[in-house]
Structure formats: C-alpha cells, structure tokens
C-alpha cells in the first residue's frame, strides 16, 4: 500500500454552514483566499480508518467552504518521514503534515507554534498526557497537536489459551476487562523475572515469545520499556551519557537470558516479523498495537478469539509501555495557515476523537485521559474486552523510545535505532556486556550537540 497520488484533489463548494467550533470561525473566514488546504495524514494499518478520517475532514471542509486535498502517506520504508524531510528542505508541500514520535523535535524550527489551540483544547478536556507534551512542546512552545488518527501504544499481545496451558497464567484474571477491578498483588506477579520463566515454557511448547531485536521501530518499542524497568538509560534528562551503569549491565544480562528463549529469527526482523509469526500460529506472545488482532478478525476468527492485550512486565524500577504519538504540525511556509489552524482545532473535538477510535477498532489512542472513557475498548471483541487494557489502565508509565534524553538527542537515538543496535551486540553478535557498553558510550558521544 502507498500514499494516495499527489494529484488527487477534491475541491469543495456550495452553500456554507457555520462551523461548529467557535475558535475555528475567525480562522476559516480568512482561509478562502489562500488556496486549497493540503493535508498529509499517516496511512492507517486498520482497514476503514482512513476512509473514516477522510469523511471527518471532508464534512468539515464542506461546512466551511474550504477547498481541500488529502494525502495518506505510508510508513512502509519510512516514506512519511522522508516526505516530511523533503518538504522541510524544499520549503514547499502540504500545509498540515503528520509527525510521529520525535519528529516534531526534528522539525520544530519550521513548525508554527500551536499554544493557543492547545490551551483551548485543554480548557475543554483537561491536560494532554505527559508523553504528548514531552514530545511536542519544544523550547517551551507546542509545535504539534496530537492527531486523531495514528497514535498508538505497544502492549503485549498474548494467546489466552497458550499462556494458560503452558505457563499457568490466566491473563483475564491478571488484566481483567471493563467492570472488573484489578488486583495489585496479581499485577505484581507479571514481572520480567517471572516472564523469563514463562518464555522458557512457551519455547519448549513450540510457541515462543517473538519480538524483533534490531534497529527497527518495533524492536525499540519493547526494548526501551525493558531497559527503563531496570533503571537503564542511554542518555539522561540532562543530556549526560548514562549507558555505562550497573542498571544497563543488569538489563543487558537479562536480555541475553531472555533472547535464549526466543526464536533466532527475531534478530534483524523488520516490523512485520512478529505479526507474521502470530498470524501463522508460531508465537504465543508479541509486543504490538491492536492491528494484528484487527487483521485476525477479518480472516482468522479463531485466532482473534484467543488474543488479549495487556501490560508489559515490571522490573526493579517500574513498569513502562512505549507509545508512539502522532502529531499534526503546520509548516511555517504553509500557504493556508488559517484553515490549517481551524482544522487542527476541529480534529481535537471529542466527537471526532471517538469516531476515529471506533473506526480504528480501538487502535487510535487519545492522549487526553478524559477521552479514554469511550465504549469501544470495553466492547470490542472477540473476545469482548480484548483491547480494554490497550489504553494504560494500571501503573505503567508511557514513554517513547529515547526517553528521558532531551528531544534533540532522543530523536537521534530513536532514528538511528540505537537501543536495538545495542541489544543486538549482546544477543546476535555475542559481544560481552562490557564491550557493548563501551561501544555504545563512544557512539552516543557523536549524538550530543557541539
């Protein structure tokens, strides 16, 4: 799948209806002379979600007499990142561009400040999650607004039947669906040390824990929570290299033991490897978004019925889950800034957010806690409640791989796949931990500005 052809346009006219958002009205009035509004969204992984978002935006454009062009850009081959980079260099392109994860920090000098829109949204719904502000608020200014489509987290996705049969774990008791209270003592049993035992039993049963180890995104999105749960960081919040620590050594020693219980194929997997193994009935546990479950619903109902999304294991320093927020930013060279600002405010409305959550079958994750009360996560199935724990419901801290380093350094850590590359040194290449730590320390020196 690729992006929609750039030449595709939809110019809307006809009688206008007053826009529903009061904040949008003054922006929209100045938009018509600026030409069509051009928007680039991330191409969704869940069938039907892009069509739902197109409908939301086209309805808004009809009401406000805004000429519109929408493109959906795939993340395969990092095309969405390459497109943003090309537009930033050429200073021409879409008015509104999607920026996942650390990319707001990468392009912040060319993005319009959005503090007034954020203030309006937060006055209505409460504050954005800390993960959003950490990523999109650069040098004290918001340069991106959380998008209604694309933001996602990386919980564990496990086979209920296999965990119960081979590891003796009833995940629906540990991480129950809506209407059933969690028991802290049960959740506490879901630790990395306990998971190592479970992983060994699952490997012996021929249905192992399968998660990529390498520089790809999926690899970093489970390795970063593992490292942090041991208190291990590559670079700390002050920008100081922190990889040479006992906590990092402990994390790497644990990873060596865990990798021995995983299939060798995980070394160097791209982001599709774990999906394929789950779909082929070769894995009992992966770390991923709800998209593998959503795909199984379409063609493998018996597999979907056994999948449960739940918390990551905890370690000595806590429990963490990776999140990949998607933000919408307005280029400082955008031609239709008034309409762009009006659209961003509209896309943060509760009704729009809930519509996208439903269309994505719970995949799209709002970064406003008050909007996590919608019915989709509680009702979606089979099995009913499978994605209830996809939004964080317990003691997990949401982070993005590279945290807690300052954004400029963290973006490089993530974009260079540094976490996965370090992991591969001790698993696939068999380096001693001390050698791997020394290599990482030297590599990270090049990431620091100046």
UniProtKB/TrEMBL annotation:
Q: Which residues cross the membrane?
A: none
Name the domain of life: Bacteria
This chain belongs to the protein called: Extracellular solute-binding protein
What species does this protein belong to? Stella humosa
Its organism's taxonomic lineage begins at: Bacteria, Pseudomonadati, Pseudomonadota, Alphaproteobacteria, Rhodospirillales
């Amino acid at each position: 799948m690729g992006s929609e052809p750039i030449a595709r346009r939809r110019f809307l006219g006809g009688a206008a209806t007053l826009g529903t958002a009061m904040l949008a009205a003054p922006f929209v009035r100045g938009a018509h002379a600026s030409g069509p509004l051009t928007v680039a969204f991330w191409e969704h992984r869940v069938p039907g979600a892009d069509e739902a978002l197109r409908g939301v935006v086209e309805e808004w454009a009809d009401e406000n007499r805004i000429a519109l062009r929408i493109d959906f850009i795939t993340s395969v081959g990092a095309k969405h990142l390459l497109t943003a980079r090309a537009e930033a260099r050429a200073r021409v392109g879409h008015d509104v561009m999607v920026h996942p994860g650390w990319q707001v920090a990468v392009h912040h000098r060319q993005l319009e400040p959005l503090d007034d829109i954020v203030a309006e949204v937060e006055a209505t719904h409460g504050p954005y999650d800390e993960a959003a502000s950490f990523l999109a608020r650069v040098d004290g200014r918001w340069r991106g607004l959380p998008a209604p489509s694309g933001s996602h987290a990386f919980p564990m996705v496990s086979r209920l039947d296999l965990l119960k049969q081979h590891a003796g774990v009833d995940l629906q008791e540990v991480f129950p669906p809506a209407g059933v209270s969690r028991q802290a003592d049960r959740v506490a049993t879901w630790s990395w040390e306990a998971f190592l035992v479970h992983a060994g039993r699952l490997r012996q049963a021929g249905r192992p824990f399968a998660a990529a180890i390498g520089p790809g995104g999926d690899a970093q999105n489970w390795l970063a929570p593992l490292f942090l749960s041991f208190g291990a960081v590559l670079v700390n919040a002050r920008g100081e290299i922190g990889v040479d620590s006992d906590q990092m050594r402990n994390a790497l020693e644990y990873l060596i033991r865990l990798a021995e219980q995983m299939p060798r194929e995980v070394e160097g997997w791209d982001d599709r490897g774990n999906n394929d193994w789950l779909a082929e009935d070769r894995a009992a546990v992966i770390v991923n978004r709800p998209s593998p479950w959503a795909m199984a619903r379409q063609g493998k109902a018996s597999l979907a019925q056994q999948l449960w999304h739940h918390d990551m294991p905890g370690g000595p320093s806590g429990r963490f889950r990776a999140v990949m927020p998607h933000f919408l930013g307005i280029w400082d060279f955008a031609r239709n800034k008034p309409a762009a600002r009006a659209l961003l405010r509209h896309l943060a409305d509760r009704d729009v957010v809930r519509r996208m959550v439903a269309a994505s079958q719970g995949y799209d994750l709002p970064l406003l806690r008050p909007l996590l009360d919608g019915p989709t996560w509680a009702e979606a199935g089979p099995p009913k409640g499978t994605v209830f724990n996809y939004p964080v419901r317990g003691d997990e801290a949401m982070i993005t791989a590279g945290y807690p380093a300052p954004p400029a350094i963290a973006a490089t850590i993530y974009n260079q796949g540094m976490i996965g590359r370090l992991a591969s040194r001790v698993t696939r290449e068999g380096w001693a931990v001390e050698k791997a730590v020394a290599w990482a320390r030297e590599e990270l020196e090049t990431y620091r500005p100046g």
